Every structure is written in structure tokens, then in C-alpha cells.
Amino acid sequence: MSANIRKVKTSDLELQDRLVAINRVTKVTKGGRTFSFSAIVVVGDEKGIVGYGLGKASEVTTAISKGIEDAKKNLIKVPIQNGTIPHDQVAKFGGAKVLLKPASHGTGVKAGGAMRAVLESVGITDVLAKSKGSSNPHNLVKATMAALMELRDARTVAQNRGVSLDKVFNG
Q1: Are the C-beta atoms of residues 120 and 104 closer than 8 Å to each other?
Q2: DSSP labels for 115-142?
Q3: What is the pTM of this model?
């Protein structure tokens, strides 16, 4: 991950949660099988703030609530311009590789499954997304978050380079 991780405080934010995947896991012991549940959850305010979390418990509802609490601890701020992302971005996590491209107004969120949950939670309304490789929801969510973390808007680029905003475009 890059050094431009933007942490966000959870106070006075209206976060909406989306359940991405729930998985029943089994532990085999001498006394038989013990079942528990693992849930991956994405939370966001649909205004540029998003986070994901993993919860594990013996009951589904407890696993989901633990996932929500974990997601609230890992919030990041994402630059959004006119409902889309500022530039193309590719990211990889484990076997999952994602490609995000900005789209014109009215296109919608062209993404599947786990990627769609993350992109809608952050508040992106128009984007073209493609996932290559593994379709494992855990790795897809993490790869999508990695791609969103690396996005930079023009103001940030100008600040990092120490030049004016005009010079970034006309440079």
C-alpha cells in the first residue's frame, strides 16, 4: 500500500453496511464438527468514505455485526469527481486483479459482486470495472480497496509536486 492512506473518524458519519459474503466454516474436533460463520462486510457513507471488515462467530448475526464493527475501524477517503473516479487504476491482492476505469455520466456501475458492493458504498455512480483472476470475494474486496486507496485527484497531485493546479494539466 502507498503512503497516502487517508484514515477517517467514524463520529457523526451515517454509514450504510452491505454484506458481501457469508461463509460457513467447520472445525473438526474429537467430539465432532463445530460450525461457525465468517462474514465480510463493506460500510460506506456514499460520499467518498468506505471500509471493509471481517467478522467470525458461531452465529450469522453476530458474525455480521463483528464485521461491521471491524469495517468502521478501517475507513478510507476516496476522491470522486462527478460520480466517477479521477483516472484508470489497476490493483492486485492475492489471486484477484481488478481494473477500474472512469465512465461518463449515466453509465452506471458496471461491476460484479464484491466489487459492486465496494463501489456503491463509496458513492461512485459511473465506473467500468473488470475483475481478472480469482473471484474469491475476500480478495476481490481487498483488491478493490487497494485500487481505491491509490486514486489521486488533481489537487493532491499538484500539492505533492509543489506546483499549481494549472501546471498539472498544462505541464
Answers
A1: no
A2: HHHHHHHHT--SEEEEEEE---HHHHHH
A3: 0.87
